Amino acid sequence: MQGLLRIGQVSKLYGISLDTLRHYDRKGLLKPIIDPQNDYRYYSLEHLDILEMILVGKYIKIPLDQMKERIDSESIDGYLSMVKEQKERINEEKKLLNQLDQYAEDILELLTTISKFKNDYTFSTASVYKEIDITIYRIDLETLLQEDTKSQQTEGIESLEQWAFYHSEPNGTIVENDEVIGFSFADSTINTTILQKQFIFAAEHNIVAQHHVTGYYSNIMFWGVKKDLMEYLYKLCCHFNLHDSALLVKY
After folding, report:
1. Cα–Cα distance, 159 to 40 (Å, whole number)
2. How far apart are CA 19 and CA 35, in angstroms?
3. Which segments of the chain have a pLDDT < 70?
4. Fewer beta carbons under 10 A from the terminal one: N or C of the chain?
5. Are 227 and 162 within one domain?
6. What's the pLDDT at 24?
7. What is residue 144's three-state secondary structure?
8. Residue 192 gets which letter from DSSP?
9. pLDDT in the model for residue 203
10. Listed residue (175, 176, 198, 174) closest to 185, CA to CA
């Protein structure tokens, strides 16, 4: 047929398979002209315009059924609205990817630090004071495990800082409060808006307790197992004479 392209030519021109074009035909998205004499499929320039719309829509992840609905309506406004909606979703994905990139960078930095890290038993690094302003949400483990207060899955990726609470007794003994656990949100935390609101709501209803830490504090890093940590905390408290003091440990 003059002025028309065969299905194989369209396949090569756009770098898509024959099966893909046949799939669009079956879905009613792109119905070719059928030669009744040989059942060959042919495509006009108008078909190619529609195909380009489909391929662009597919690339930006617009569902085929949604594209078919807008294409069938033959309204440019409908297609324009669909692309605008998808552009908003793409911007949200870009934001998430940027956060993921920062999160991966933080993990790489942490792992690099750990690979070269040695515990400081002179405690010289603890002499550096750092300004801290953080809210830790304390929750009883028993409450956390109750069926009616289990956290519900929310959209996105969530990453929380976990805290444990220790106390140095007047006699130097280190005691862990293993009945509670703490959570906080780092600046690089990904998509935690919904989860953070849930914690604030829980605090307002006395399900969790807010522990606000602000001011200048010395901090020190440690790498090891629980038994070694207890010994390290004991030596640290003895070194600085920290008796009857609260110790916060972030994992």
Report:
1. 55
2. 19
3. 1, 142-159, 187-194
4. C
5. yes
6. 92
7. helix
8. -
9. 78
10. 198
Question: Residues 129, 239: one domain?
Answer: yes
Same domain as 235, residue 154: yes
What distance lies between CA 84 and its chain's CA centroid?
Answer: 24
β-bridge partners, 41: 34
Cα–Cα distance measured from residue 113 to residue 139, given in angstroms and rounded to the nearest whole number: 30
DSSP letter assigned to residue 74? T
Structure tokens at 124: 């010289």
Q: Interhelix angle for 64-72 vs 76-115, to 10°?
A: 160
For residue range 53-85, what is the model confidence (pLDDT) as tens digits? 888 888 888 888 888 887 777 777 877 887 888
Taking the complete model, does pTM exceed 0.70, yes or no? no
Number of structural domains in the chain = 2
Q: What is the domain extent for residue 42? A: 5-77
Predicted pLDDT at 115:
86
* Amino acid identity, position 53: M
In the chain, the amino acid numbered 29 is L
DSSP characters for 7-19? HHHHHHHHT--HH
Identify whether residues 227 and 123 lie together within a single domain. Answer: yes
Residue 15 has φ and ψ, to the nearest 5°, of 65, 35
pLDDT at 190: 53
Q: How far is residue 102 CA from its own chain's centroid?
A: 11
Q: Are residues 126 and 239 in the same domain?
A: yes
Q: Is residue 101 part of a domain?
A: no
